[in-house]
């Protein structure tokens, strides 16, 4: 395997990112890789926001992983800034290679570098393999999350 690099995503990475988002049962039902227009618009907003970091893992010139970090300043916990990790995906051919752990370690280090006091994430309740993965990395299932589709 070639050298792995984790970096800020570029607009040219959108097709690969969307393909990874769509490459599972949940994503297949909610993503539209044939129409990248809404993804490009969302990327422009994310890339312009200093509290957002959309990242990709690249190996041998191919995007093989992605995640989004959002930095949330707050008053709770004595003004602690939180890092929220979302949309973690690893290309199907790279799963089980340790890439996910490397990507998550990179994200935690980015949070430390930004002075965050904690890192949090959400994971769909049906993703039991992902839950075991996050627990192996030291994350605790400490809260119940709620969503309201609009």
From TrEMBL:
Entry keywords, A to Z: Acyltransferase, Transferase
- Can you give the residue ranges of the N-acetyltransferase domain? 4-150
Q: Which domain of life is it from?
A: Bacteria
Q: In the record, what terms sit under GO molecular function?
A: acyltransferase activity, transferring groups other than amino-acyl groups
> Which is one Pfam family of this protein?
Acetyltransf_1
For this protein, the record's CDD domains field holds: NAT_SF
Q: What is this protein called?
A: GNAT family acetyltransferase
């Amino acid at each position: 395997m070639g050298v792995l690099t984790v970096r800020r995503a570029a607009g040219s990475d959108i097709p690969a990112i969307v393909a990874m988002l769509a490459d599972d049962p949940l994503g297949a039902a909610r993503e539209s890789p044939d129409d990248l227009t809404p993804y490009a618009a969302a990327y422009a907003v994310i890339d312009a926001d200093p509290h957002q970091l959309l990242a990709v893992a690249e190996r041998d010139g191919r995007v093989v992983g992605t995640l989004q970090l959002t930095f949330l300043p707050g008053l709770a916990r004595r003004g602690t800034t939180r890092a929220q990790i979302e949309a973690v995906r690893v290309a199907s051919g790279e799963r089980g290679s340790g890439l996910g752990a490397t990507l998550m370690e990179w994200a935690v280090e980015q949070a430390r570098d930004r002075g965050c006091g904690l890192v949090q994430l959400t994971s769909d309740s049906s993703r039991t393999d992902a839950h075991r993965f996050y627990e192996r990395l030291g994350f605790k299932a400490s809260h119940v999350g709620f969503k309201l589709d609009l």
